Amino acid sequence: MGSVAAMLEGETRALKPGEVLARGVARHLGQLGFAPLLEFVPKRGLRVDVIALGPKGEIWIVECKSSREDFQSDHKWEGYLEFADRFFFAVPTDFPVEILPEEYGLIFADGYGAEIMRDAPEVVLNAARRKAVSLKIARNSMERLQRFVDPRV
């Protein structure tokens, strides 16, 4: 996606389709009391579109897919499952949802908001994994904020 770095550097450009979905998802999750973070790297080689920390410490991951081709060409999302209590796909309303696995949550999104259409089953993370992911989310968020405040860092 690349939008976080661009935003931190003050770059203005048109958002890519997946970035538009991520923005709407982040807005919706914020309304639900979650703290969303875009483009999070849980481990080397993986980058989730949206990860969110809930009011009770729950961790949700949302994978944004803007088209059939986007979904069919990228299967890295399967590696994200071990880092979340719930996993969702976010897609535009005209997406062919029948191609998505039914065992995960479904969100319809656009650049302004989102709506959960199918809840994701809860798979509770073990305490050690939850702590590690939560700390990494916190550190990543703080580092981004510091770069925003002082771009020379």
- Work out the oligomeric state of the chains in this entry: single chain
Fraction of residues in β-strands:
15-25%
Residues in helices, as a percent range: 25-40%
Q: Low-confidence stretches at least 5 residues in length (pLDDT < 50)?
A: none
Q: What best-fitting shape do the alpha-carbon axes yield?
A: globular
What is the spatial order of strands in the main beta sheet?
1-2-3-4-5-6
* Cα Rg: 15 Å
Number of helices: 4
Number of strands: 6
Mean pLDDT: 92
Distance between the termini: 22 Å
The structure class reads alpha/beta
Q: How would you sum up the major sheet?
A: 6 strands, mixed
| Succession of helices and strands | HHEEEHEEEH
Describe this structure in words.
The chain is α/β, with parallel strands linked by helices and 153 residues long. 33% of the residues lie in helices and 22% in strands. The protein is built from four helices and six strands. The protein has helices spanning 3-8, 17-31, 68-73, 127-149; strands at 35-40, 48-53, 59-64, 86-91, 105-109, 114-118. It has a six-stranded mixed beta sheet. The longest helix has 23 residues, at 127-149. The chain is globular. The two termini are 22 Å apart. The mean pLDDT is 92.
Key structural traits:
single chain, 153 residues, alpha/beta, six-stranded mixed beta sheet, 33% helix, 22% strand, globular
Write the layout of secondary structure elements.
Layout: H1 3-8, H2 17-31, E1 35-40, E2 48-53, E3 59-64, H3 68-73, E4 86-91, E5 105-109, E6 114-118, H4 127-149
Parallel strand pairs: 3-4, 4-5
Antiparallel strand pairs: 1-2, 2-3, 5-6
